[in-house]
User: What shape does this take?
Amino acid sequence: LIYLGPILRGWERLKWRWREMKTADAAGALAPAMQRPRVDWRERAFYLSYWSEKSDEKESLLGGLLRFLTPQKYFIQTDQGWNDWDLKIARGLWSRAYVLVCTENHGGEKRLLRVRCGMRLSRFSAFVLRAYAVATAGALILDAPEWASVVGILGIAQAALIAYRTIEFGRLMHRAVETVAEREGLLPLETG
Assistant: This one.
């Protein structure tokens, strides 16, 4: 039992992570996009805006995201007040989404909610990419250009995979925010 326990726990973790990757669409629970996001490639973020005339604050959207993503086994961390994000959402090993919502008060019960979702690499993916770069440089220093080219090609392939997963996660987060906004009765500012 001493040796079997860690193996079984590791197996269960692998099965859970595999299931996590398959829950991307939540069995069709995601609504179609109501608005095109404004994408800022330099900041690696997209922006959405919603209008409300029933005094909705940012907590309604953030709480809806928590209720929507938690059953799908996303790792969600809320801000403790010192960060420039409200929710940090992790899906898999490669990327993180940082969601920030601000509310503009337009008098009476009118509110404009602005959402920024920044897509970032996880620490693990940044470490992996740096390790590939160091290994490539080390192979070049040791005068092994064949090994350097093999490791460099593997690093480029890994970087492409990470970029693909991050963009895919960004699209998923866009649809998740749209779904929650629709459920909360928020109107998209610009329809696309």
The chain has four helices and seven strands. Residues 28 and 191 are 21 Å apart (CA to CA).
